[in-house]
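Re: Re: ligand-bound prediction request (bumping)

Still looking for help on this. To restate: I need the protein modeled with magnesium ion bound, output as structure tokens. Inputs repeated here so nobody has to scroll up.
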Amino acid sequence: MNRTEDTIFALSSGTLPAGVAVVRLSGPKAFDAATALAGDLPIARKAGLRAIRSRNGSVIDQALLVCFPGPASFTGEDCVELHLHGSRAVVSAVYEELSALPSLRFAEAGEFSRRAFENGKLDLVEVEGLADLISAETEMQRRLAVEQSFGGQSVLYRSWADRLTRARAMIEAELDFADEDDVPGSVSDRVWLDMGDLYAEIEQHLGSAKAGEIVRDGYKVVIAGPPNAGKSSLLNALAKRDVAIVTEIAGTTRDILHVDIDLEGYLVRFFDTAGLRETGDLVEQEGVRRARIAIEQADMILELEEIDSVSKHDAKLPSTNLLRLGTKLDKHGVSPNYDLCISSRTGEGLEQLRGRILEELRRVWTGSLVPNRQRQVQYLKEASQSVAEALNGRELDIRAESLRAAASSLGRITGHVDVEQLLDVIFSQFCIGK
Ligand SMILES: Nc1nc2c(ncn2[C@@H]2O[C@H](COP(=O)(O)OP(=O)(O)OP(=O)(O)O)[C@@H](O)[C@H]2O)c(=O)[nH]1
Ligand SMILES: [K+]
Ligand SMILES: [Mg+2]
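Reply:
Sorry for the wait, this slipped through. Here it is.
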């Protein structure tokens, strides 16, 4: 039997026990299955209270039922939601009844969204956005996911693909009618002007990919510096709990620890590292090696040093996005030798430190319409490269072919590669003096 014709069910709400558990059904037998459990069904898209009964007639629970006839449903198929009381026992008794019905089975991971995609309810970008929306933890992650899951990003990609297809139609018309004298001569010029604009737009959008990555995966701030500078103490102060071991012994930290902090809606990931120094200790050497790798991958480095300490270290740190912090302000006076002086003990300077990081983040953030997955970035790069090839090409037919390639790269992002259809429509309306 074709598995896509099965009717699937799963718990769509969170971990049990809970006040309410929503079990969702989708597929051709969804309404039959719900009728078997509830006796009869409420009218479409209206909630109705029903006793849910087992095969032997005993009541399992009282539940709200909502029916969504396809195609006006999440998956595009007939769907039913059962809003049950959220205990493990209720849900497993309902599962048992559903499993006993012919051609009903438990859904596989992502199968509801998969069906929604296959039935044209969601495109790939929207599916990815939905996954991000469900796992969003910060305000910025939520905003990004909303733009993606409700079509904002897809509209942009589709409008680009349409422009490419139109441009190609113009070029091909020019090729076809090249011998005739009724071809408007400036058509081609206008097309290439627009393609130049499009190239700039895609490049600008690609330029914001870093912001997307930062919002999704977090802004990486690495706390570095010589042993005993107070790195682990700063991590603990920022986290407001004892994450890292702090002692007065130089070389305490070896492994890299990290703490995620929500800074005004941005996810910031702070890394505590081993103190940078030459050492004979094998374990500490490994710690220093790891610290250097973390420093290389950082979006921002906090270079800590006890204020005006005599033992200046000479570890070379990248100078871009480096903030020099003088530590243990409670023991020493403020010194002009640092960007900022702080005390992890009293908390002095920490608010300013958060402010500095936030300033950076706000500079990076360019709005929520950004590519934020490697897959999207990859295809956007391909598209941009093809447009550049078209702009710089010589033979008109090869240039048109590059435009086609660009449109299909964009189509792969959303999963819509049917630009050929649009091309047909455009051509059928196209008439040059005929
Ligand atoms: N007075 C004062 N002491 C501090 C402050 N921050 C850290 N210390 C002390 O400095 C010592 C070293 O602190 P750590 O946080 O372990 O320093 P570290 O840079 O992580 O050291 P390593 O992991 O060994 O490289 C400890 O004794 C801390 O109590 C501060 O703001 N004020
Ligand atoms: K220490
Ligand atoms: Mg430490």
